[in-house]
């Protein structure tokens, strides 16, 4: 039995959606960041980095959304990644960009202390992070132009990952409705039963009126 560790509303929502869409049988455990449960000794034995997501499989633990989502698609649901090798590489490339650029830009807004010890620069880091994150969301909006899903006509694990950032943009009050392609795609995402189950379980801001 697979076991997914996640935190509601965190980037781990991507893996939560991926495993729900895959049809694989799994258990899940939510961690409370407010209570620092990701730093508890019991969890650090599972993921010493103290981050989510973490997926426990038969022979150990897999961490990082890009790795978990690729694993889930290849093992349980090959339809969740493009069959063409070039398109598959582009899907993985997009997820890597989400992880190494889009997510860190958002982190600058809420966790400036991770990037500087001088508190006098925190406001600048937050403002720059907000500007860069908004630019990333506009780029995702452009990627969705003329498409049903991020990779084209077929839903993939990339879509669950991209939904995370729409929710974060809404959380910090960015004008998400101005991103027409992204918003229309978000509505299609919310119509998927597996996605809706995850968002309801995580009490997602995306379900708020």
User: What is the molecular shape?
Assistant: globular
Strand fraction equals 5-15%
What's the architecture of the largest domain in CATH terms?
Answer: Up-down Bundle
Tell me the helix content: 40-55%
Low-confidence spans: pLDDT under 50, at least 5 residues?
Answer: none
Q: Could you give the distance between the termini? A: 36 Å
In this structure, how is the largest beta sheet organized?
4 strands, mixed
Tell me the total number of β-strands: 4
Structural class: alpha+beta
User: What does the average pLDDT come to?
Assistant: 97
Write down the CATH class of the largest domain. Answer: Mainly Alpha
Tally of separate helices: 8
Detailed description of the structure:
With about 210 residues, this protein is α+β, with helices and mostly antiparallel strands. It has two domains: about 1-80, Glutaredoxin (3-Layer(aba) Sandwich), CATH 3.40.30.10; about 80-190, Glutathione S-transferase Yfyf (Class Pi), Chain A, domain 2, CATH 1.20.1050. It has eight helices and four strands, in the order βαβαββαααααα. It has a four-stranded mixed beta sheet with strand order 2-1-3-4, covered by helices on one side. It is globular, with a radius of gyration of 17 Å.
